[in-house]
UniProtKB/TrEMBL annotation:
Organism the protein comes from: Tomitella fengzijianii
Cell compartment(s), UniProt: Membrane
Entry protein name: Zinc metalloprotease Rip1
Protein family: Belongs to the peptidase M50B family.
One GO MF term: metalloendopeptidase activity
InterPro entries per record: PDZ (IPR001478), PDZ_sf (IPR036034), Pept_M50_Zn (IPR004387), Peptidase_M50 (IPR008915)
Domain of life: Bacteria
Predominant subcellular localization, coarse grouping: membrane
Keywords: Hydrolase, Membrane, Metalloprotease, Protease, Transmembrane, Transmembrane helix, Zinc
Cofactor(s) required for function per UniProt: Zn(2+)
Pfam families per record: Peptidase_M50
Membrane topology of this protein: Multi-pass membrane protein
Gene Ontology annotations for the cellular component aspect, listed alphabetically: membrane
Transmembrane segments: 97-119, 376-397
Length: 403
């Protein structure tokens, strides 16, 4: 039940983010006096709508986005007689750019508010901190119940018995490099017997043999989604949670901005890595193991949101929603149509072109003919549609499983 609630809440969060993105365009357009014809959330058949003033507001059946229709977004648009003086393309370039950036700004503000809330609540993780730093050490529960809880245990676990300490940063397990906590967990789970751990402690590199204990755990079959009991390796070590930075209401402001900058860099790198992730995404649809780093759709993100709520990991739930908003902002500033950044690129091109023409004693040129850009726009739209279909399919048949 908690899982379903989490899925619904995260999907609702995505819907709110989309609605506010489009509201950013609407608010900026109305502020400058442009005519906004329609403001809708979703696509496809109309479920309902109402009119307030000159704008129609409504909801459509497919919750996969939204749109804000502004009269005269391009010079190719047909205009009603009362729209001629308020058409968007007739306004100064800077005002058109502000309107196009309205949605991006809203996504950034949503992400910042969520990050600020985390900074005041649970704290913010140190992104550059070692991910394989050991935290609390304990015994290894011999068995996991069907409901996911662990059978109580007592005494020192394998990590403590071997001499590992809280604060150690694990670099290798049985000769295999580990860079993330996920890498470390997988390496331990697949190990048995005495395994050498290479760790860094107070500037020294140590090699410590650890007797990995075999325990019973519930695992999910990636093909069927069914639960089964499996024998896996365990050493009784948790991830270091002390890497969180805590703030007060004042220091949380620069802290949130700095953290957002780090997230932006990671999101940009993830966007650049998209093409290299597609082959694994395709393989996962046909039964291959899916990497945690492959792109996911809103379906997969909502599913992860459900898992976080199910495990009472609300900070991860909020973090994922914030990252989604930052990613949407970054995606929308790409200088490609039909993204907002594509429209901004056209406006900037017209401005530069007309400036050059003035220097040469010529009149301003005609607005860009969007019909000439239509083949490129359609190609990008088809590519995006295919990619969305691919990620949704993968998230249904072989979703990313963090737990």
């Amino acid at each position: 039940m908690d899982f379903v609630l989490g899925v619904i809440l995260f999907a609702f969060g995505i819907g709110i983010s989309i609605a506010l993105h489009e509201f950013g365009h609407l608010g900026a357009a109305k502020m400058f006096g442009m005519k906004v014809r329609r403001y809708f959330i979703g696509f496809g058949p109309k479920l309902f709508s109402f009119r307030r003033g000159e704008t129609e507001y409504g909801l459509k059946a497919v919750p996969a986005g939204g749109f804000c229709e502004i009269a005269g977004m391009t010079a190719m648009d047909e205009l009603e007689p009362d729209e001629a003086d308020r058409a968007m393309f007739r306004f100064p370039a800077w005002k058109r750019i502000v309107v196009m950036l309205g949605g991006v700004v809203m996504n950034i503000l949503i992400g910042l508010v969520l990050i600020y809330g985390l900074a005041l609540g649970s704290g913010l993780p140190q992104i550059d901190a070692p991910q394989t730093k050991l935290g609390a050490l304990s015994c290894s529960s011999p068995e996991q119940r069907a409901d996911g809880t662990l059978v109580p245990c007592a005494g020192a676990g394998p990590a403590q018995q071997a001499g590992l300490e809280s604060g150690d940063v694990v670099k290798k397990v049985d000769g295999t490099d580990v860079e993330t906590w996920r890498d470390l967990v997988n390496a331990v789970r697949d190990s048995s017997g005495t395994v050498p751990f290479v760790v860094e402690r107070d500037g020294e590199t140590l090699t410590i043999p650890v007797q990995v204990e075999q325990v019973q755990r519930q695992v999910t079959d990636p093909a069927t989604g069914a639960q089964r009991t499996e024998s896996v390796g365990s050493i009784g070590a948790a991830n270091d949670a002390a890497g969180l930075l805590h703030f007060n209401a004042l220091t949380a402001v620069p802290g949130s901005l700095e953290f957002t900058g780090e997230i932006a860099v990671l999101s940009w790198n993830a966007l650049l890595d998209f093409p290299s992730r597609v082959p694994n995404l395709v393989e996962s649809i046909f039964g291959g193991q899916r990497s945690d780093e492959t792109p996911m759709s809103v379906v997969g993100a909502s599913r992860l949101g459900g898992e976080f709520v199910e495990r009472d990991m609300w900070q991860m739930f909020v973090m994922l929603l914030a990252q989604l908003n930052f990613f949407l902002a970054l995606l929308n500033v790409l200088p490609l149509l039909p993204f907002d950044g594509g429209h901004i690129a056209v406006v900037i091109y017209e401005k530069i072109r007309d400036g050059v023409r003035r220097l040469r004693g010529k009149a301003a040129g005609a607005p860009v003919d969007y019909m000439k850009l239509m083949p490129v726009t359609l190609a990008i739209a088809v590519l995006l549609g295919g990619f969305m279909l691919l990620t949704v399919t993968a998230d249904i048949v072989n979703p990313i499983r963090l737990f």
